[in-house]
Prior knowledge:
By secondary structure, the chain is an all-alpha fold.
Amino acid sequence: MAMGRILSLCTMIVFTGIASPVRAGDTGQPSDLCDWCTRDAIYEKVNLIAGLEANPDVDDGLKGPEITAARAEIHRLRATLGPLPRQWLTPCCYTRKPLYIR
């Protein structure tokens, strides 16, 4: 009888650990790899736009919608990245005293 209660208690603890909200919050977090994939996608879209704009053989009526869609995709991807993290304690050159040359 005691062994059955211990087994059921251990089973409840295991299921509680598997379905905890803390664990559920970890699965949706973006990683650094995701940021690099997003940056690569932006780079590819920029190259697509540059290639379409430089190609004189394609009619502007055909490449215009593709360029517009690529630019919209770039804006959407940049919004998912957010601001870049600062790696320094003070801003670059805004904290220096002004130099006066005589």
